[in-house]
Design brief:
Rossmann fold, four-stranded antiparallel β-sheet, nine-stranded mixed β-sheet, 17 strands, mainly beta
Length: about 260
């Protein structure tokens, strides 16, 4: 009743995950989900659906490398949009009367995953995907979900706009890194910011289990991630808050 009358409903950690129509229930192994462990009533279950039927939410996203479990669930449950919220972050959703929902990031970082143009396939009974769109949101950023239009925070808009297709683009980073653990603590956010501000146009990394559980039939299976710029990839950079703060829209990802 509170929600339907326009009240605010909030939750932290699992309380954030339950905002979707579907939620992770007990899925401690990100790689296990990528290998196919995605069972209703075990790894996943029904959520409360406050975010609507089209948006899936996961939490502790960058710290725990949960991109690897969010993507398979989105594909399995036919979600087009996914939102990964970091531990020190909050996202405010404003529901529009005509479905024009907007998201605003309050502190920290979050990643918006868009699968509208993605292609999925299965290799060796495991997850694989091409062409996912990833956007990195920073404190104060807003995004309009129907149009996917991202508006940077005021301090970021006053900083440096980064558009690889624009005249005068002068990237900072020269040598492309290779990430041995692409799903490591904060790796995704670092990779996204640097890729937009780099002379190279793509980077790669791996995810694998160096100590697989006994009986794992896919123990030797690992995953390669290819993060790259595509048409429309752009963003902003600012050091106004004493750090290297990036907002990034529409990078591409293959797994």
């Amino acid at each position: 009743a509170l929600y339907r009358s326009g009240g605010v409903v909030a939750g932290t950690s699992a309380g954030a995950a339950i905002m979707s129509t579907t939620m992770f229930r007990d899925a401690p192994s990100v790689l296990g989900v990528m290998k196919g462990q995605l069972r209703t009533g075990a790894e996943v279950d029904q959520g409360l659906g406050f975010m609507g039927p089209a948006l899936f939410v996961d939490q502790h996203f960058l710290k725990r490398g949960r991109l690897g479990r969010l993507l398979p669930l989105m594909v399995a449950k036919d979600y087009t949009l996914g939102l990964g919220v970091e531990e020190d972050s909050a996202v405010l959703m404003r529901r529009g009367p005509d479905g024009g929902d907007t998201l605003q990031l309050l502190g920290g970082k979050a990643v918006l995953i868009d699968l509208r143009d993605a292609n999925t396939r299965r290799e060796a009974d495991a997850f694989a995907l091409q062409g996912a769109r990833l956007s990195l949101l920073d404190a104060g950023d807003e995004i309009d979900l129907p149009s996917r239009q991202l508006r940077p925070a005021a301090f970021k808009a006053k900083g440096q706009r980064l558009d690889p297709a624009a005249p005068g683009y002068k990237p900072y980073y020269e040598l492309a890194p290779f990430y041995v653990d692409f799903l490591g603590d904060g790796t995704l956010a670092t990779a996204m910011g640097q890729l937009l501000d780099a002379q190279y146009t793509e980077l790669r990394g791996l995810a694998f289990d160096p100590r697989p559980q006994a009986g794992d039939a896919l123990a030797a299976l690992g995953f390669e991630f290819r993060l790259y710029r595509g048409p429309g990839s752009h963003g902003w950079y600012s050091d106004a808050r004493g750090g290297e703060d990036y907002t990034v829209q529409d990078l591409r990802l293959d797994v």
